[in-house]
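Continuing the batch. This is chain 6 of the set; chains 1 through 5 are on the previous pages. Same settings as before, nothing changed between runs. Recording input and output for traceability.
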Amino acid sequence: MENQEVMREFQKWLGDNPNFEQNMAFLDEFQYLMMYYRSAIKEVQTKLEILADELSFKNKRHPIHSIESRIKKPRSIGEKLIRKNKEITIENIRNELRDIAGIRVICSYTDDIYTIVNMLTLQDDIVLIETKDYIKHPKESGYRSLHIIISIPIFLSNQKEYIQVEIQIRTIAMDYWASLEHSLRYKGAVPSEVFRQLEEYAVEIADIEEKMLHVRRYIEK
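Output for chain 6:
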């Protein structure tokens, strides 16, 4: 993203600053920091792809259906810092926000999720910072997914930097439900009776997933 585009994204907070040179210095530092996060995503994706290849070879099936990544937009970064009552600085962006770099991993079965997470976090250069298990403890809406935040090193020309990455891991069925639920919420407020229905459907999908897992395990005996 070019500096002019980033400037437009941050216009709400930087626009009143008369010091143009200070603004440009901030934008240059911001772009450099985003390079760190893009590099961290590449590191994590490579690790996940290698683990998927290994498990595919051992188990004769693919545990990971897809991997997607994203970097949080400047406007979202600014809005989140404002909600946290923090000034928009490079230091606060790095220290206060854990989800700037995000990866979503879609697995075939629930047990694949825990296998992948366990294998990834046991690697000696990975630091597990936080785990939120919305599979064992679903949100009130019915949302299910496993969220972890890790720190991973990236190696630059003259230094090593540890960068935080948020990883969301869910099954195909969980992702299907979450995508539809998000699109419904995007249309406006969800009535309470519809909210209850969504939760019920999430439970039904989870039941079907469990049955499919039993079928797979029976075939693999």
